[in-house]
Amino acid sequence: CEILSSLPLQMSLYFNVYFFPCWWLITVAILYLKYPALSDYYKFILVTIMILVSLTELIRLYLGYVGNLLEKVPELAGFWLLTLLPQLPIILFLLFNEGLKIHSLERAVHIIFAAFLSFQVVAAFFTLKRMVNTLAARFRLTEFHRLEEQRPAPGVYSPAAGSSS
Questions:
Q1: Radius of gyration of the chain measured on its C-alpha atoms
Q2: Residue 96 near residue 29 (C-beta atoms within 8 A)
């Protein structure tokens, strides 16, 4: 019975759980400070992004913990998709869009968060690949053993085969 969960992924999730509240507080504080200097559409975009990232990150971290520790493929796949699609592009937008008037502290926490997300995308992909391959092999073995148990022993008369005489 091989353990399929990934220790590096789990460590990254653990540190991400503690880093995210710090990232959120710093980002909200800097948003509060620079809010009057932003244009109206950037104000709307940043508030929407903060709400979306906050909700998505809670769901994403939960799915990552459950998927990795309990070796559940659907939850880990959901974690991987939530990391790859909404989270990583949003953080890269916050990191590289100069129209947002990025402060140095804000850039630093976005770089750390982007590093967490990038590592988790790669680690979750290889963990998912290993889990799926191992679970598929287990399924094939159980099916093979089930078919072996149903097959009649050699030399025993089988009514479906008919008689040869």
A1: 25
A2: no
In angstroms, rounded to a whole number, what is the distance separating the alpha carbons of residues 156 and 165? 15
Cβ(132)–Cβ(73) below 8 Å: yes
Question: Distance between CA atoms of 34 and 19, rounded to whole angstroms?
Answer: 22
Q: Give residues with Cβ within 8 angstroms of 137, minimum separation 6.
A: none
Cβ-proximal residues to 72 (8 Å cutoff; 6+ apart), any chain: 66
pTM: 0.83
- Asked whether the beta carbons of 95 and 114 are under 8 A apart, the reply is yes
Report domain extents, the chain.
7-149
> Which residue did the predictor score with more confidence, 1 or 75?
75
In angstroms, rounded to a whole number, what is the distance separating the alpha carbons of residues 27 and 12? 21
What single-letter amino acid sits at 148? E
The b-or-e profile of 115-142 (16+ CB within 10 A means b, else e) is: ebbebbbebbbebbeebeeeeeeeeeee
| Res 57: pLDDT | 97
- Report the length, in residues, of the chain: 165
